[in-house]
Specification:
Layout: E1 5-11, H1 22-39, E2 44-49, H2 52-65, E3 75-80, H3 83-93, H4 97-102, E4 103-105, E5 110-111, E6 119-125, H5 131-134, H6 146-154, E7 159-163, E8 170-179, E9 207-209
Length: 213
């Protein structure tokens, strides 16, 4: 995945809970983006970032309650190798009323500022083994199952609630975000993103980290 260009979608949350809370709006906006991803598969890679405004809110929450809140990602940052693909993505989603009412969308695709890159991260779907798979694994009744352990981890991760095209059912996609140490940008991987914009285990890649404006 060559992350040459990017756009940002900043989500405008206006409540601490309910339908205008950040997690709910993030899911709503992402599902619009996910639909556009399906039209041009394997072209777009997704990163999650936190705006300066959201960072200040998190700091205020920590001061008020004396504990560090979970990361509140309010930026969907989308990368592509080609500028025209991101321009087409903007055209496909900019007129949706939820984008217009609850998000700030980049007006044009931007060059990745290579001189300002501060790190690299990988974004993968966090897998939870099904209970059916668990039955085929050796177990210790005194220990939690792999399913239980992975489920506990998943509850602490950012996630999307995605609607299946085939069945119409909603399911959860937890996002595993990891820092990647790169000795050379050639080591960032050439894998292609899946339909969610995430790296596959068999096709890894890392995305650049740089300041949210």
């Amino acid at each position: 995945m060559q992350a040459n260009f990017y756009i940002d979608i900043r989500i405008l949350d206006s409540a601490d809970d309910g339908e205008l809370a950040l997690p709910h709006l993030r899911n709503q906006i992402y599902n619009i983006v996910h639909g556009a991803f399906r039209e041009l598969p394997e072209r777009f890679a997704l990163a999650l970032e936190i705006s300066p405004r959201q960072q200040r809110k998190m700091q205020a929450t920590e001061l008020k309650y004396g504990r560090k809140p979970s990361n509140q990602y309010d930026i969907l940052r989308i990368f592509s190798a080609e500028k025209n693909e991101l321009e087409q993505l903007i055209e496909n989603i900019k007129s949706h009323w939820k984008i217009q009412d609850y998000a700030v969308l980049s007006q044009a695709a931007l060059d990745v500022p290579t001189a300002k890159i501060t790190g690299w991260k990988s974004y993968n779907r966090f897998r939870i083994p099904t209970l059916k798979m668990e039955r085929n694994l050796p177990s210790n009744p005194e220990q939690k199952t792999l399913h239980q352990r992975r489920l506990e981890i998943a509850r602490r991760l950012p996630y999307f609630r995605v609607k299946s095209q085939s069945t119409g059912q909603l399911f959860t996609v937890p996002i595993d975000i990891r820092d990647v140490e790169l000795s050379d940008t050639k080591d960032m991987g050439n894998g292609l993103p899946d339909s969610y914009g995430l790296a596959r285990q068999t096709q890894p890649f890392a995305l650049p980290v740089f300041e949210v404006i």
